[in-house]
Amino acid sequence: MSVEVLFLIAIILLIMEAFVPSLGLIGLGGFIAFVSGVILMVNNGQPDFYGLSIQSVIALGGLIFASFAVF
Description:
mainly alpha
C-alpha cells in the first residue's frame, strides 16, 4: 500500500469513529493506519510529505492518539 492510501484510510476511519459507536476500536484502527503510513514514509526516505515535515506528521499522530485516549 502506498502512504497516501494509508493516510486516506486513517482519515476515513477517524471520521467514522465520530458517527459510529464502536468503543474506540475504529479510531484505534485509524491511528494504526496513520502510524503505518508514517513508518512507510520514513522507510522510503521521503524528506517530506506534501510539504509537511516528518516531525509535524508524528506530532499530528500523537494529537490524534491523545484525543481518542481522552474521549
